[in-house]
Specification:
Layout (H helix, E strand, L loop, with lengths): L4 H15 L1 H36 L5 H19 L8 E2 L6 H14 L6 E5 L4 E7 L8 E8 H6 L2 H16 L2 H19 L3 H4 L2 H35 L1 H14 L1
């Protein structure tokens, strides 16, 4: 049984990401930029259509005007929706000095950036996210580290340090910043894909071609980020320590 077109695309992109990660990310950045540009032009064309209808139409089709305004609203909301901070309780640095000492050591080993807050929740996981200060994805960012209580109760200080080096690897390479731009444009196209073909007009053929390509890049990109963070943690704490931490993380989780 042969592979589908989407599967073949993912296999090809995976080989490219492994052989030439820089070229893969440049291609992904170009695909994402094209997605933003086309949606922006589509948004402007809708504004122009509404303006022409209001100015030149003798009998304005009210339902059509309302429909176009609703479409504009959903596109704008998808772009400007604020990214919420991670859930949990903010850890006090003085109260949990031993935890913050391990975090600081991992930060120094990876040349990682400063953290805005360390959040504690009830999940068996560790994660980071970089949230823009403004609604747009430009300007300053705040770095959040989230740690789960079950994870902290299960790992030793050395294992935790190895896991934190992986998370700081994401921050060092600013994976979260670019990932948010990718996810945001994907969310916009997913939302548009759920609309009626007659509403999207000439945009629909592009949507049907573009979105599967973007999905293929995202599938490979998410794994390539993890591998890059793994390499940073591997170099920071060594092969044995990181392998032991990974084993415990997955088995105990």
């Amino acid at each position: 049984m042969g592979f589908s077109r989407e599967k073949k695309r993912i296999i090809k992109l995976k080989k490219l990401a492994e052989a030439n990660p820089r070229r893969f990310k440049i291609q992904l950045a170009f695909v994402v930029a094209c997605g933003y540009a086309v949606v922006f032009l589509y948004f402007l064309s809708l504004v122009a259509l509404i303006t022409l209808l209001i100015i030149f139409a003798h009998r304005i089709p009210v339902r059509l005007i309302i429909l176009l305004f609703i479409l504009l609203f959903f596109i704008a909301r998808a772009f400007f929706q604020r990214i919420p901070p991670p859930s949990g309780l903010a850890a006090d640095k003085e109260k949990y000095s031993e935890l913050f000492a391990v975090i600081q050591e991992a930060k120094e080993l990876t040349n990682g950036p400063d953290l805005y807050k360390v959040m504690i929740n009830h999940e068996f996981n560790a994660s980071v996210i970089q949230i823009p200060r403004l609604w747009l994805l430009f300007g300053g960012y705040r770095n959040y580290l989230t740690l789960g209580l079950p994870l902290l109760a299960s790992l030793s200080a050395e294992d935790l340090k190895a896991a934190l080096c992986h998370e700081f690897g994401h921050l060092t390479k600013e994976h979260s910043k670019f990932r948010q731009r990718v996810i945001k444009i994907a969310a916009v196209y997913e939302m548009l894909g759920e609309l009626n073909i007659f509403i999207l007009l000439l945009f629909y053929p592009f949507l049907k071609i573009y979105f599967p390509i973007l999905e293929g890049y995202i599938a490979v990109y998410q794994r390539s980020d993890e591998y890059e963070a793994d390499r940073i943690a591997f170099n920071a704490v060594g092969k044995t320590a990181y392998a032991a931490a990974l084993w415990k993380f997955h088995v105990l989780g």
